[in-house]
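Structure (tokenized):
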């Protein structure tokens, strides 16, 4: 297979966002809120809800105003609330009262029997107050909640081990739950007892809230530290996908049977597994590894493909087929695409010369299309000396072929990071994340600034996503087209404008330099061939400007 490698630079991202004129509609900042524990997710009805964890008494500021909301019951509590309600109101939100150092790992919208969510978290233990129930759990544990739309807990499950239990991901089949986790020592679920082979082992399991035992539990056992990063439930194919970190070769245990799983490289091995969701049988698996650490940001499927989001600190080597994916900076955001047989097909890599991280990789429904969304941050040297770095929040949107469709970058003098993003049924983009010092959530640079209340605060920002080409390209498609794209020696531009209109054609390099400019006239339709043989490979911005509007397309020039 031919590997597709797309490279983005930070200055290019700024150019895209300015060209697309993404509109900031509203935002709130939340002091004393753990920004790592902040999720936004779209339910089947198309509306968005957010979940997070408070820390003590929490204040919320709306633009320049401050009002008290989200007063926590204990040290840290979880909340689950409608996103627009949270933005527009200063009334108290509903809470699930937590314990010490709670950390939301994943929020999954329940498909049935009623609307609500499956929320998974880790805690250091303590007294847990759930509705009118008090549960004392003295050791570190993981817990999952079945929560209705009013934050009332309908059911819950707790998990703990003799050394440690760390819940990494949770998914819902509607009536049952799936978990991905790691543990050390001994772990008991009902009458099932497990003992880790290494310092920590990974576990993938399916269970129900009504019973005490897992319906099935698959364990990834090997010497050293091994754990499950992310899981994905494919309802249409009744398959469960898991991405696991392996320290060394070992086995996948399911009941009395075991299947050997061998690492592909000397270190930093990642295994992508496909399981039968009904019984946990291992259907297929593949490996990839890196010369440095890999962090997994997400996994999901479409009709024909499997996607894994990773942060890479070195080159990545796939197993089947054998392929090298080159790193750009010291830490890059990347997506690996596999077919349903888990053969590697292509990759997307985005980075600068510094540290760039995707905190979340998810599938989102934009209009009638599935899109791939990377939310995270880009770091850049603001002095040119290597001694001072700023960090700005980023949202990248890809199509199923790993083409960059659009991007959103915002920030100011401090550190901003996006932790999750999704689009509601009306086409509005919601981004949640964290910041410190002075921040701006407006990509247009209008100077709307907020100063953090604490050492690190959380935010939720709402954007008019319809202004991005990603979310409704149909009108632009009819007005302005480029082909072929990618292009090598030339491309054809077609412009459709009513009547006779004069317009300016401008092409910018990824460095922001103007490389082509001319005035043209279109009488309803203009088709023009443009030579690019002298252009260096990379991404270019092609703009058509009339008196009343301007339209922007991205052109990828290849060797």
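Design, position by position:
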């Amino acid at each position: 297979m031919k590997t597709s490698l797309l490279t983005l630079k930070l200055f290019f991202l700024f150019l895209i966002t300015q060209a697309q004129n993404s509109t900031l509609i509203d935002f709130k900042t939340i002091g004393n809120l753990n920004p790592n524990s902040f999720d936004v997710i779209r339910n089947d009805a198309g509306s968005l809800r957010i979940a997070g964890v408070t820390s003590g008494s929490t204040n919320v500021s709306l633009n320049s105003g401050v009002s008290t909301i989200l007063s926590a019951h204990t040290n840290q509590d979880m909340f689950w609330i409608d996103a627009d309600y949270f933005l527009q109101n200063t009334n108290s939100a509903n809470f699930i009262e937590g314990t010490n150092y709670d950390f939301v790992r994943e929020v999954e919208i329940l498909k049935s029997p009623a609307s609500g969510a499956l929320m998974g978290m880790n805690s250091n233990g303590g007294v847990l107050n759930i509705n009118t129930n008090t549960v004392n759990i003295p050791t570190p544990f993981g817990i999952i909640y079945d929560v209705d739309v009013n934050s009332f807990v309908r059911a819950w499950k707790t998990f703990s081990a003799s050394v440690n239990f760390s819940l990494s991901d949770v998914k819902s089949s509607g009536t049952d739950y799936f978990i991905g986790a790691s543990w050390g020592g001994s772990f008991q679920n009902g009458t099932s007892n497990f003992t880790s082979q290494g310092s920590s082992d990974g576990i993938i399991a399916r269970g129900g809230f009504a019973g005490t035992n897992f319906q099935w539990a698959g364990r990834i056992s090997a010497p050293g530290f091994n754990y499950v990063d992310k899981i994905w439930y494919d309802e249409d194919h009744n398959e469960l996908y898991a991405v696991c970190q392996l320290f060394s070769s070992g086995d996948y245990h399911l009941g009395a049977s075991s299947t050997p799983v061998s690492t592909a490289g000397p270190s930093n091995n990642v295994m992508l597994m496909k399981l039968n969701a009904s019984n946990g049988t291992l259907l297929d698996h593949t490996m990839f590894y890196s010369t440095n650490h890999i962090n997994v940001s997400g996994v999901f499927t479409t009709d024909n493909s499997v996607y894994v989001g990773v942060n890479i600190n070195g080159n990545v080597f796939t197993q089947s087929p054998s392929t090298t994916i080159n790193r750009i900076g010291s830490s890059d955001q990347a997506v690996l695409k596999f077919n349903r047989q888990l053969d590697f097909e292509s990759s997307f890599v985005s980075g600068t010369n510094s540290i760039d991280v995707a905190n979340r990789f998810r599938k989102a429904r934009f209009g009638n299309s599935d899109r791939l969304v990377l939310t995270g941050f880009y770091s850049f040297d603001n002095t040119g000396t290597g001694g001072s770095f700023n960090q700005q929040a980023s949202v990248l949107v890809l199509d199923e072929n790993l083409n960059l469709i659009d991007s959103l970058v915002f920030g100011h003098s401090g550190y901003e990071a996006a932790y999750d993003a999704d689009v509601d049924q009306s086409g509005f983009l919601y981004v949640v994340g964290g910041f410190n010092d002075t921040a701006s959530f407006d990509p247009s640079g209008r100077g709307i600034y907020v100063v953090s209340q604490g050492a690190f605060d959380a935010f939720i920002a709402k954007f008019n996503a319809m202004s991005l080409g990603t979310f409704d390209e149909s009108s632009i498609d009819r007005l302005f087209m480029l082909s072929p794209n990618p292009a090598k020696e030339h491309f054809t531009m077609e412009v459709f404008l009513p009547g006779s209109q004069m317009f300016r054609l401008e092409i910018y390099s990824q460095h922001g330099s103007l490389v082509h400019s001319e005035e043209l006239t279109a009488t309803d339709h203009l088709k023009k061939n443009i030579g690019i043989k002298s252009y260096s490979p990379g991404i270019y911005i092609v703009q058509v400007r009339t008196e009343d509007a301007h339209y922007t397309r991205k052109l990828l020039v290849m060797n």
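Reviewer-requested clarification: The chain has a mean pLDDT of 76. The chain is about 5% helix and 60% strand.
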